[in-house]
Amino acid sequence: MGLEERTVCFDRDLEIEAYRFKGVMQKFPNHFHEYYVIGYIESGKRRLSCRNNEYTIGTGDLVLFNPMDNHTCEQADQNPLDYRCINIKTEVMKRAVHEITGREYLPQFSQTVAFNCELVSLLCELHQAIMEEQTDFKKEETFLFLIEQLLDEYTLPYAETKACDLKSEIKEVCSYIEEHYAEHITLDNLSQLSKMNKYSLLRSFTRIMGITPYRYLETVRINEAKKLLENGVEPIDAAMETGFVDQSHFSNFFKEFIGLTPKQYKNIFTNNKD
């Protein structure tokens, strides 16, 4: 088995990240992102769980994650994973959608997996352009054509994109975690806030959000740490500012969630600025 490769490039023209994982066997825990993820399997087979649905995905399959879609995946056999994806922040997606449709809204992918999808070739073309740091406008043209086709084929109609209101108690718990993630939060705190006993809170939160309260907290912390690292903050400072007990704890969680160490992730943006 060859050595794994993990390559990430940030495109400053499009303001999106492109990831390439080659030869990877890592299991990714249940988590979510604050941005859209559009990816495909080059080779390998994975078991994917997203929004309480189970999939077995392989070569040529397209995966589509909305912001906040909880998901986890692991190898389905002994063959390593080769995977490419782009990450699109909500403000970038909103601009692209407005450019294409004339409407300002955030689309909602209607399905997580598109098996043997013809759009993989277009995504591959865009991904390659980003990795090669191409500067001509063909890259933006490809990006807009990709988003246009995704909107047409794999998103809910505009009228159905309004988010459903969360149960008020769970929404309050989420808001509290998002505001106090850098502090020491206990299950007692969340239980009192929600006016539920601890077990009822755990069951209700996990059923509605698809992720446990503690995993939600971990994910919020990692997402906030990413923002700090993107702005040049040193990993040890990012760890302290986001509530991790020490840098080792932070590094382990970051690698588990993102697939890169905090230093590797920071260097993407440091090198890009240079």
The main pleated sheet reads as: 6 strands, antiparallel
What is the β-strand count? 10
The global form is globular
Q: Oligomeric state of the chains?
A: single chain
Distance from N terminus to C terminus (CA atoms, Å) equals 35 Å
Structural class: alpha+beta
The helix fraction, in percent, is: 40-55%
Q: What amount of the residues lies in strands?
A: 15-25%
Read across the widest sheet, the strand sequence of neighbours is: 1-2-9-4-7-10
Q: What is the H-and-E element order?
A: EEEEEEEEEHEHHHHHHHHH
Gyration radius (Cα, Å) is 19 Å
The poorly predicted ranges are none
Q: Can you count the helices?
A: 10
Mean pLDDT: 91
Q: Could you provide a short overview of the structure?
A:
The chain is of the alpha+beta class. It is built from 10 helices and 10 strands.
Q: Overview of this structure, please?
A:
This protein is an alpha+beta fold. The chain contains 10 helices and 10 strands. The protein has helices spanning 90-101, 120-131, 138-154, 168-180, 187-194, 198-209, 213-230, 235-241, 247-258, 262-273; strands at residues 5-11, 16-24, 28-31, 36-43, 46-50, 53-57, 62-65, 71-75, 81-88, 113-114. A 6-stranded antiparallel beta sheet has the order 1-2-9-4-7-10. The protein has a 4-stranded antiparallel beta sheet with strand order 3-8-5-6. Strand 5 (46-50) and strand 6 (53-57) form a beta hairpin. Helix 1 (90-101) packs across helix 3, helix 2 (120-131) packs antiparallel against helix 3 (138-154) and helix 4 (168-180) packs parallel to helix 7.
